[in-house]
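Pasting as-is:
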Amino acid sequence: MAGSGGGPALETIQADGTDGNCVTFVLHDEDHTLGNSLRYMVMKNPDVEFCGYCITHPSESKINFRIQTRGALPAVEPFRKGLNDLMGVCQHVLNTFERSMKEFRAQKEEEMQ
């Protein structure tokens, strides 16, 4: 659960000499599950020049998520869009699963009668 340690769930570190187009986001209480999925969604944006993440240490539950964009686009924009797109994909998967489970249970009830 993000932020359960009492500290912030998200920190940002801006690279020296940049104007917001190269930022490292430190996500606390997260791992490869979010890191790799979010990296995939962010890299779909053609304005993103680089996107990657690393787990700082196996005993720490935080990831460093770095985004570098082309031009003057602030790195926070593809980060937000990636999170929103990922939430949309997760919601679609959940809705599809729940619909399939409902159909399966209805089919099993018919077989029992």
